[in-house]
Amino acid sequence: MTILEPVASRIDLHTHTTASDGLDSPVALVHAARAQGISVLGVTDHDTVDALDSVATEAGRLGITLVPGVELSTTVDRAEVHVLGYFVDRADDAFRERLADLARARVRRVERMIDVLHGLGYPVDGDAILAHAAEGSIGRPHVARALIAIGAATDVSDAFDRFLKAGRPGYVPRDPFSPEDAVGLLVKHGAIPVLAHPYSTKDIDGTLKRLVPSGLLGLETYYAEYSADQHRELRSIADAWDLVPTGGSDYHGAGFREGRDLGSAPVPDEVAERLFDLYRSRGGSA
Ligand code: AMP
Ligand code: FE
Ligand code: FE
Ligand code: ZN
Fold first, then answer.
1. Checking CA distances to 253, which of 100, 137, 141, 224 falls within 20 to 30 Å?
2. Which positions ≥6 away from 114 have C-beta within 8 Å?
3. What is 126-171 written as a DSSP string?
């Protein structure tokens, strides 16, 4: 008899739903998490908390602990700097209003991308892309799917590589929004800010020098796409800066992107405990 090593983690603190660019509805995400044996689930849609009510209800029914979150996208010199916010208060109207501003900026950016692609001779269906804005926050993956639909790209990664990433012809920069402002917004509204997939920033130390004084409290260390060596390196950086090391898969749906399967990040149990301790120490009840 072969004894299989357990590969799936019981903790996944970074996932997306159809409220942003994920493929699973909020309820479907919770069911997928349960099928993977996940007991602590962080839901972190881009610039929106709209999934969290449905996710909370379903997670409660299935006995999964929800860490309600959000992921704010900023750019520094064309490098993506994403900031996760944990234990967001989805009933905070002022916070939701700021998120709505960011979602509106996303629509304007996507409208410009559609114009640019039309100008380049790629007849992507703009109405179909923009229709998603009724469901949640839209972004480049929705444009990628429209490029696939007209046969201009084979899959989402191909669409990014050929059209949508910085330096490619369909790239449109987002409105200026600094990572300091993202961290500040989360702190102001009582959430715990964590630097997402830190290698995307190109300069981790420089980014931490900017963001720790603004109130950054965590570093996403156990990111599924990173190697064991990278996990170790990030863990020593997190320890040196006294940041809580979090982790997750950045799941966007089955097959959305290789290496991002739900529950595939090796997140130690201790991580969830530290995150909850931090939350309680800041006055949260959980
Ligand atoms: P946006 O928020 O509109 O700038 O789009 C960024 C999102 O696109 C990220 O959150 C990922 O979900 C996705 N993404 C970024 N780069 C790639 C890539 N190379 N392949 C597939 N998806 C990507
Ligand atoms: Fe995404
Ligand atoms: Fe991200
Ligand atoms: Zn993400």
1. 100
2. 124, 126, 129, 130, 143
3. HHHHHHGGGTS---HHHHHHHHHHTTS-SSHHHHIIIIISTTSTT-
Q: Which helix (H) or strand (E) holds 9?
A: none
* Angle, CA of 39, 42 and 43, to the nearest 5°: 125
Asked whether the beta carbons of 241 and 212 are under 8 A apart, the reply is yes
For the CA of 165, the nearest atom of ligand 1: 16
CB atoms within 10 A of CB 48: 22
Rounded alpha-carbon distances, angstroms, from residue 119 to 85, 95, 106, 168, 179: 37, 37, 20, 14, 32
pLDDT tens digit sequence for 98-132: 999 999 999 999 999 999 999 999 999 999 999 99
Smallest-distance ligand from the CA of 196: 3
Residues whose beta carbons lie less than 5 angstroms from ion ligand 2: 21
**Cα 109 to chain center, whole Å?**
18
- Which atom of ligand 1 is least distant from the CA of 106? 3
Q: What is the largest CA-CA distance in the chain?
A: 60
DSSP 209-232: HHHTTTT--EEEEEETTS-HHHHH
DSSP-based three-state secondary structure for 195: strand
Helix (H, G, I), strand (E, B) or coil at 109: helix
Low pLDDT (below 70) residues in the chain: 1-9, 286
CA of 267 to the centre of ligand 2 (A): 20
